[in-house]
Amino acid sequence: MVLRSALLTALVLGQSVTLILRPDWAVILPADYFPPNLYDWCSRQGPARSGYWAPDRETIGDLEVALAPALQRALEQEIRDPSRRPATNEYYRQYIGIQVGRRQVVYINGFHKNYLERLVTTHPQLSDAWRLRAVNVCDGGSSFFGAEYDPATRQVANVRFHGRG
What we know:
19% of the residues lie in helices and 33% in strands. The protein has two helices and eight strands; from the N terminus they run E-E-E-E-H-E-E-H-E-E. The chain is globular.
């Protein structure tokens, strides 16, 4: 499912910066397209879940508005040198609705565009595979991240990058 664009203007060091997530680089995946246990991620811990739910487009739109600055802050903490830091709009995103206790949360699985570009160079038939199955790569550093979005609070939490690649 293709999603609408999230556009947010933030103040960074006194300058106005627009953070945009590409809508065509995001999908909502059904529960059976993710590992049965989100703890099965190779290089990062995912949340414990007790069930699944289907987020709607409005929820995902709100998520993307919150994700852009949260990812930007996480990248700034992870990569101190701005010349080496990727832009927030260079990440593909996969979303799945999970139950965490009594809360509904959207789990975010993100990966940098370079991963897909390298994959397609050697395996062109896999260009759309990310739209069908969760991307799960060991290590990879800041090229891969997971996060959680709480629709009740409209907050993104627990942005975690992979181990060092």
